[in-house]
Amino acid sequence: MIVPSQPHRRAASGAPPASVLLALLTVLATGCGAATTAVDAGGASAVPAQPKRCVLLTTNDSEAEFDGDPAIVPRGEATLDTLARVVGARAAAEIDHPGSVLLLEAGDVLQGRYMQRKDGDRGRAARETLAMYEAAGYDLGTIGNHEFDAGPAMLAEALAGVGAHYTLLNTNLARADTTLADPPGRVLLHERAMRDCGGLKIGFFGVLTPSTRQISSMGDVRFRDSDDPVHGPARAAVAALREAGAEIVVAITHLGVEHDLALAAAVDGIDVIVGGHSHTPIKEWLRVGQTFVTQSGSRFSWLGRIDLIGRASGGLDTERSTWKLQPVDASSPVDAATRERLATFRAAYASGRVIGSRSVAWVLTGDARHEYGKRAARAVAHFARQHGVAVDGAMLNSGGLRSQRIFEPGPVLDLDVKAIHPFDNRLVVVDLDGRQLRQAMEHVCVEDHGEAAGRRVQLADIAVTCDVSKPALRYRMADGAIVGIKLPGERVRELRIGGALVEPGRHYRIATNDYMARGGSGHWQLSQVQRRCLDDRPFGEELCPGGATVADAVSAAVSDGSLDQPLTQPAAR
Known about the structure:
Blueprint: E1 2-3, H1 18-21, E2 24-30, E3 33-39, E4 45-48, E5 53-59, H2 82-96, E6 101-105, H3 122-135, E7 140-142, H4 152-160, E8 167-169, E9 173-174, E10 192-197, E11 200-208, H5 212-215, E12 222-223, H6 231-243, E13 248-254, H7 257-266, E14 272-275, E15 286-288, E16 291-295, E17 302-309, E18 322-327, E19 334-335, H8 336-346, E20 354-358, E21 362-363, H9 369-386, E22 393-397, E23 406-407, E24 410-413, H10 414-420, E25 427-433, H11 434-442, E26 457-460, E27 462-466, E28 474-478, E29 481-487, E30 492-497, E31 500-501, E32 507-513, H12 514-517, E33 530-533, H13 550-560
Parallel strand pairs: 1-19, 5-6, 6-7, 7-8, 11-13, 13-14, 14-16, 22-32
Antiparallel strand pairs: 2-3, 3-4, 5-17, 9-12, 10-11, 15-16, 17-18, 20-24, 21-23, 22-26, 25-32, 25-33, 27-30, 28-29, 30-31
Helix pairs in contact: 2-8, 3-4, 9-13
């Protein structure tokens, strides 16, 4: 079904009789609350007045997946037009609740295929992607860690292009005198916002995960309080919004569901948390005290709906307010204008090119994704050796595998590889001795490591066995950054390279990517050893410009048929 771009409004009814024009509203106290009832001039009760209601429609971690997951695109269709279906759902909600619907996004939008223009201009891609969200009618949002993937300068450029309608929020970053500082006459990120919606005065604020320091490229941008980067700023935001008259306070967070629950427990006065970061589809909202916690999956696969019902006495009616998570699929209504806008938008972006064939399925879902991850690490080691660099093995960060779908056997497009490895991370070789390598592997031995290989890393020709009952590695921190090892870990039980036990005094050469080589995702040890680009240039501030990427190595393995060869290396545990 296609719905019009502008929502219909219900036709006005005829003039009411004179007796109703004289109606009075009286509040009849019942228990702890109160019900509002219409009473006519003769004293007879009429239909109870409707409560104040605001509808919040929510997405998170949508990663500009405007076309939809290819795995669920209907047969014969090129795209599911998921963004157009979100807009269609909003238009449908507006029919029932005109002027009382807000559309929210909880961060991670500057990521995925639409960061790849044909002309390679990522800055323009970022600007146009955020403009697409605004054109779709998004009202409020926050930023996620992926908004910093290309650094704060590109994020600032993208934010400067957002119009007045889409208000992006963050309350826990210190941006003054940084790359992300507001330019003259422009606010890039608002700390808080107030909205009158359905007769309710609602206050909003946004929070970014502190892990952005380790998993993205924040540059000179810092958190307001390095010791308490989330709860302190959130308390201040709640207090300011309440003082400004907010009846209901909504936090739009990019923290992950576990940290959202902790926020709800630690900070009073938040009525609803609209969360992101952990890609969690919460079917029934979670409650901590008086705070509801929600999240809507990822990549436009789901649309959340919160019906906020106000109490007659003020504030949120927690018993009557509701949460619903609905799939965005072929049955969802489509907004015609957004569909046309997306068709024009796609024309400037790369189209797929066949680079080889897939003899086995690539499963990028659940624990099975680590099978593909080991193949990708093997491709990196093979690529380095083909280019004359003798490496003993390879390691990649698991977070670099971005797709969450199954690629069935058949032709492989270059866009398939870019969907899985979108970051253009350059290949780097690190030289370290056996002791250093063992400490690097200590960072891998996390509690949930178990028998599922590669919770934090994907390995090739390296096998590590962990004992998580032993003491874990502990880092020394300063201003939220790792500056050294506080306690060496004792969890690595056995470490082998090429089947042979690693010797403490022997030197090893490992292929990785520039993100890990500069200590990304907590791999601090790799930032402390000798590092060189694949072409033997020193690894420095420019991070091997123009060098081969992980995607290049995987694409080469697809082309020569080696990627899908059986894995013979020992499984990393």
